[in-house]
Amino acid sequence: MKTDRIEKLGDYLPFSYGKSLLKSKRITTGTFPVYGSNGVIGFHNTYLTDNFTIIIGRKGTVGSVQFSKTPCWPIDTTFFISISDLYLARFAFYSIKSLGLEKMNSDSAVPGLNRDAAHARLIRIPPLPEQRAIARILGSLDDKIELNRRQNVTLEALARAVFKSWFVDFDPVRAKAAGRAPDAMDAATARLFPDGFEVVDGREVPRGWGLARLDRITENPRRSFHPSDVDPKTPYIGLEHMPRKCVALDDWGSTDTIESNKFGFDRGEILFGKLRPYFHKVGVAAISGVCSTDILVLRPTELNWFGFVLAHVSSDEFVQHTDQSSHGTKMPRTSWKDMARYQVVLPPELVASRYNDFAFPLIQSIVTNVHQSRTLAALRDALLPKLLSGELRVREAEQVVEEVL
């Protein structure tokens, strides 16, 4: 019967050096992801490795561990390991994640991971069937997390597409003006739209609609808290927790790590990163908590306007407005004053409410997926060391995972 063995990481899974790739060659329309030490940083039309790949941060975000199922290009701030078998690659990925390589910074000036030092770390290697089983168990959790992420992208895109059709392109109005019924719309909703346009302050808008500043339907509640005023376990969101161009806020810390005053926010309110607004960090809070003062808290004046407000403040056009009106050269910031004067084409509240009936459930589904993914990630992280050490048997872990998937 085959038993576990202990080997040096470098003898079992030696690191290869990533290869440099000019920024000008990292394109958004490329086929293959380009990995830096902090994850995907662009795309390219060719790849460096075509197997399943583990990417390890060498410079910058030291010791970070990423996994790519697709051919990719790890750049020279990374190490990588390429393995042709999915389950063995995943087992290697989880083994390396458990080593705490992020604590092995060897250069105080420019963070760096020494390959020889990493190679000297010892890892437990169980028999191949157990490796595959461990990878399958933990991988099933990661697959569900990734599925939730993709679902959230689709849900957000769907809400945005309908918003653009109704309130930017005015498709229902144009259809009725041409004597046609609006596409994919029930008769009751179609009756809410006019059949023509008029000019308001030099701008063509649907007949009966108007122009208004954003603060007509949006407010900026300012609730300031000192760390001593809140429980240390209170969720905390900083700019570092907010993804770019994604309203699903699925990452947060806790207030036991902060020292200065912060703003409070409630679940369902909108958070907008005001520092360097061109980073496009806008999302819906999945929890109540406190946030950095470099984040503005927004909410609609009435719930009926929620979907309309969210779609506007997370749009490319609005972010461009905040960027152009921001103050400061090296660290530009926008403000609520700048945001409040943004002009919107304002429909009757009944039309906004009908859109909210469509969009709000989609956003709620996004928030539900966020919470489920965090629960699954916590379970994965709890099972990982126990499975790799042999403390927990594979069958026991399978039963736990079957209960949540």
Automatic annotation (TrEMBL):
Record organism: Candidatus Viridilinea mediisalina
GO molecular function: DNA binding
Gene Ontology BP terms: DNA restriction-modification system
Annotated ranges, domain Type I restriction modification DNA specificity: 8-156
Alphabetical list of Pfam families matching this protein: Methylase_S
Keyword Protein transport in record: no
Protein name as it appears in the record: Type I restriction modification DNA specificity domain-containing protein
Protein family per UniProt: Belongs to the type-I restriction system S methylase family.
Superkingdom: Bacteria
Keywords: DNA-binding, Restriction system
Annotated PANTHER family: TYPE I RESTRICTION ENZYME HINDI SPECIFICITY SUBUNIT, TYPE-1 RESTRICTION ENZYME ECOKI SPECIFICITY PROTEIN
InterPro entries, per the entry: Restrct_endonuc_typeI_TRD (IPR000055), Restrct_endonuc_typeI_TRD_sf (IPR044946), Type-I_RS_S_subunit (IPR052021)
